[in-house]
């Protein structure tokens, strides 16, 4: 195990190109990503991240800084929180030449990104993700959003950041269950696009759980590379070419995951729910004759090896089925799932039978 001192700069092309910088001790990169010198910088964070936010602010020099403190975690993703933040920006006279910096996990980058996307119809935002999950997924690609009573992420917009600063040092204070949850999205990238991710984890799961390991850094960079390749090809999720699902592929496991999150009032972490959702959809694909049994079984084995949950049966299937109907991939009354036809061969399964949907849940619940 070693810690490289070199930073990695990953470029995200497209109409609004930006860089994702990955390394140790790279918080100082934020100022250079803010574009033409803004007068004010709104630093959006939750209370537990005040210390890291302070370290970011210290790198900004003499900018006028406005701190916007959000509730911690998923409860930040509401309309009421957005309105409160808009009022604070209004009171500060925040203009289009000012900028937002988010410091936090995916809930903060989603909500801070949404605030930046909507204030004056869009001001620049730089994300400083502080959880593994936000580093490999939420901070990259421009999806922002919040929840409503009907479900998860039902309101939002695509608003690409001006830059993303991934300082692996901040993972030092992250609780292990949060690190493990982030690995759910990393494993997802392994199954949909980069099997070397799975090989790395399977070789030594303990290294993946070590914040300063070279292995975790490689996993982070590989997962970000998968995300960049997908969003550059299909930023607004309008569809891919040659049968590839396009950006929807990043929703692998998410149809059931979002249903579980909603049904458990977000007690199950997003990354944990994604792990459960992938076990579910792998079995669904197997039952539909799309995926071989070994690759389906590999899901639970890889996920469990790093401590992710692979069994869930505490909610009635009907409740989850109803929640899945409001998924953004649904068309009319037809549920659509991202499935694998083989390792790293994603496609769409539209309208699976009720019997298969139910049987896959019995599998997830450990009943078959
Ligand atoms: N926009 C996207 O593309 C995208 C992608 C994936 C997930 N998401 C969203 O991200 C959210 C989940 O993000 P998450 O898993 O980061 O959870 P989170 O943002 O709720 O953070 C989890 C917890 O970690 C704490 N924390 C964060 N950084 C820390 C640090 N360095 N040290 C100590 N504690 C720290 C937070 O205070 C919080 O309590 C969900 O809302 C999900 O929908 C969005
Ligand atoms: O970036 C994407 O696109 C994703 O789907 C990444 C997912 O990991 C993430 O959870 C996303 O927020 C889910 O998107 P949604 O459109 O289903 O809300
Ligand atoms: Zn996700």
SSE blueprint:
Elements: E1 8-12, E2 18-23, E3 40-46, H1 50-58, E4 64-70, H2 79-91, E5 99-104, H3 106-118, E6 125-129, H4 132-138, E7 143-148, E8 151-158, E9 163-167, H5 176-192, H6 195-203, H7 205-208, H8 214-233, H9 254-263, H10 270-287, H11 293-305, H12 317-324, E10 336-340, E11 346-350, H13 354-364
Helix pairs in contact: 3-4, 4-5, 4-8, 5-6, 5-8, 5-10, 9-10, 9-12, 10-11, 10-13
Bound molecules: nicotinamide-adenine-dinucleotide, the ligand O=C(O)C(=O)C[C@@H](O)[C@H](O)[C@H](O)COP(=O)(O)O and zinc ion (ZN).
The site of nicotinamide-adenine-dinucleotide has 30 residues, from helix 3, helix 4, helix 5 and helix 10.
Radius of gyration: 20 Å
Distance linking N and C termini: 40 Å
Low-confidence stretches: none
**Residue share in β-strands:** 15-25%
Describe the main β-sheet briefly: 7 strands, mixed
Supply the CATH class of the largest domain: Mainly Alpha
The name CATH uses for the topology of the largest domain is Dehydroquinate synthase-like, alpha domain
CATH architect. name of the largest domain: Up-down Bundle
Bound molecules: nicotinamide-adenine-dinucleotide, ligand LNCXM5UN, zinc ion
Shape: globular
| SSE series | EEEHEHEHEHEEEHHHHHHHHEEH
What is the overall number of helices?
Answer: 13
Secondary-structure content class: alpha/beta
């Amino acid at each position: 195990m070693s810690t490289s001192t070199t930073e990695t700069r990953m470029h995200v092309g497209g109409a609004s190109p930006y860089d994702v910088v990955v390394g140790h001790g790279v918080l100082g990169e934020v100022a250079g990503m803010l574009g033409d010198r803004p007068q004010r910088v709104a630093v959006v964070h939750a209370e537990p991240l005040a210390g890291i936010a302070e370290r970011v602010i210290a790198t900004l020099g003499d900018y006028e800084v406005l701190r916007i403190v959000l509730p911690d975690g998923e409860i930040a993703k509401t309309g009421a929180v957005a309105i409160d933040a808009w009022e604070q920006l209004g009171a500060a006279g925040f203009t289009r030449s000012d900028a937002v910096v988010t410091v936090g996990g995916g809930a903060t980058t989603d909500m801070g990104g949404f605030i930046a996307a909507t204030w004056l119809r869009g001001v620049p935002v730089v994300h400083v993700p502080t959880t593994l999950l936000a580093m490999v997924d939420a901070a990259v690609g421009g999806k922002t959003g919040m929840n409503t009573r009907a479900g998860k992420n039902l309101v939002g917009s695509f608003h690409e950041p001006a830059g993303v600063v991934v300082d692996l040092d901040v993972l030092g204070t992250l609780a292990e269950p949060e690190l493990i949850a982030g690995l759910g999205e990393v494993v997802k990238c392994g199954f949909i696009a980069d099997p070397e991710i799975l090989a790395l984890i399977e070789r030594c799961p303990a290294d993946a759980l070590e914040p300063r390991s070279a292995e975790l850094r490689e996993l982070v960079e590989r997962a970000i590379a998968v995300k960049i390749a997908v969003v550059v090809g299909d930023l607004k999720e309008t569809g891919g070419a040659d049968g590839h699902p396009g950006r929807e592929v990043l929703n692998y496991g998410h149809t059931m995951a979002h249903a579980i999150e909603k049904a458990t009032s977000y007690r199950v972490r997003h990354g944990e729910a994604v792990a459960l959702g992938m076990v579910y959809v792998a079995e669904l694909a197997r039952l539909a004759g799309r995926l071989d049994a070994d690759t389906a079984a590999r899901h639970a084995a890889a996920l469990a090896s790093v401590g992710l949950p692979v069994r869930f049966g505490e909610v009635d299937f009907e409740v989850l089925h109803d929640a899945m109907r409001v998924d953004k991939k649904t068309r009319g009354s037809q549920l659509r799932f991202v499935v694998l036809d083989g390792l790293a061969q994603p496609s769409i399964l539209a309208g699976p039978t009720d019997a298969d949907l139910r049987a896959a849940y019995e599998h997830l619940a450990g009943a078959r």
